Amino acid sequence: MSSLTEKDRPIVQLLLKAGTCPRCILRFCCVGSQVLYRHPHKDLMKDLQEFLENNQGKEDTVCLDGADPPCKRIRLEHREEGAEDQNHNGAIPQVPEADSGNAGMESSTVKVCNVCLGILQEFCEADFVKKVCQKVNSADYQFTSFVFSVSLPPQLSVRERAAWLGVKQEMRNLGLPLAKDDIVQLKEAYKWIIHPQLSEELGVPADGKSLFEVSVVFAHPETDEECHFLATACPDCFKPAKNKQSVFTRMAVIKALEKIKEEDFLKHFPCPPSSPKKLCDALEIQCNNGAVFVAGRYNKYSRNLPQTPWIIDGERKLESSVEELISEHLMAEFRADSFNFSSSGREDVDVRTLGNGRPFAIELVNPRRIHFTAEEMKRLQQAINDSSDKIQVRDLQLVTRSAIGRMKEGEEEKTKTYSALIWTDKAIQREDIAFLDDIKELKLEQKTPLRVLHRRPLAVRCRLIHTMRSEYLDEHHFRLHLKTQAGTYIKEFVHGDFGRTKPNIGSLLNRTADILELDVESVDVDWPPTLAD
């Protein structure tokens, strides 16, 4: 126990007597050596008792293993300021011998720690580590490293505060400083102990940046009982929440502990805390893989297929969608819990997307499988394409979360090319539409279209028609090829939307015009990268 010094002795004495486990005692003695925490519980208890016995009566020896000797002047100051804590020989009171009633921790039945509620005791043992690893292995995830997280019962913050106040009072009586910031946090100590064991059992390293998370949720049956006094002292900190079974959440308890006065805390909770009746429960052992992102481009060949599920008032209107035709294969191969679909713009249900397709990305949430070769991604792409004649996918690839931003950035500055089949009520000749070819950078003012006003805010949007090229078909029909600013409502530009888009094809031709068919010819977003066939 080379990290302990003479100044730690009163802390060790106080906490051992109160029923604190050896590892929590090391925490309150600000011991930062990770290796020490990994020593067996019995060995640590033995070392602590030897530390106390070996230093009894040695007034000029502050620490073990060669640390600096104590300052005699400070020792005298301690005697004056902490006289009530000294026996008639002037020595600091000792922890009772192992055969006394307070030495139960060394008996065959280990008492539950009054600070950590057993987390740094039973839940550091090999049996529990194996239980966690069995859960991980049975979940069948792919991972090359892991990050470990732990959720603790809220009253641990209360008990830690009580222990700290008890130690603080003891040190104050002895004239010694104690900073709460120096105490090793319970979660940190637990991870020091558990990480090497998990790493060895799982065969992969612990990595704080890993996307694969193993988490343990601890709970304790006495949480509400022990935190109830805080609700009386700080009622505004505890507000019922729909998704919470108890108002005593970790954050609410911490907030209350920050507000409550020290003297009020001391009135309602023993310092150091008393021994608990029960051990913590490991309520849940969970695994979660960070999201995987897949990108590509899709073509839509059907005029009866929405991009996303078309559901109105809870009723499904069409049997499938672009999103579903692509994602069902990805969900099956990646074995994910759910997905989120996004794209560079969207087309209406009756609009085709041709040319090089529309960029899209799918976030696969909590996937079990994460590693795919380029060849496997090609086969997955082919499986999607073989499953339906309504869509085709190209350039299917794994991408990073940050790369998806490139699909959205500067979206309104990008250009899109369309082909529209237009009908007019009055007969037209070639020369009636030829002037459209000469119009460049036509500025539009478009009020939110009536057809989307139920889901988009009312606004006037300025858009540009960069170029147009007309193709005469007959007296009442012509095809118009347009290159526009992204976000332009093409249908409304043709028929005018009752004057909500100005100018429009109808006003330019001085007759009624309507759109019969619309195709997206290209979406000029240089992402994702084109892949070789």
UniProtKB/TrEMBL annotation:
Annotated Pus10 N-terminal eukaryotes domain residues: 113-287
InterPro entries, sorted: PsdUridine_synth_cat_dom_sf, Pus10-like, Pus10-like_C, Pus10_N_euk
Keywords noted in UniProt: Coiled coil, Cytoplasm, Isomerase, Metal-binding, Mitochondrion, Nucleus, tRNA processing, Zinc
GO BP terms: tRNA pseudouridine synthesis
Sequence ranges assigned to domain Pus10-like C-terminal in this UniProt record: 293-524
This enzyme's EC code(s): 5.4.99.25
Superkingdom, taxonomy of origin: Eukaryota
One cellular component (GO) term of this entry: nucleus
Subcellular location: Cytoplasm; Mitochondrion; Nucleus
SUPFAM superfamilies membership: Pseudouridine synthase
MF (Gene Ontology): metal ion binding; RNA binding; tRNA pseudouridine(55) synthase activity
Class in the EC hierarchy, top level: isomerase
Claim: Chaperone is one of the keywords in the record: no
Catalytic activity: uridine(55) in tRNA = pseudouridine(55) in tRNA; uridine(54) in tRNA = pseudouridine(54) in tRNA
Pfam family, one: Pus10_C
Entry's family note: Belongs to the pseudouridine synthase Pus10 family.
Protein name from the UniProt record: tRNA pseudouridine synthase Pus10
Source organism of the structure: Falcunculus frontatus
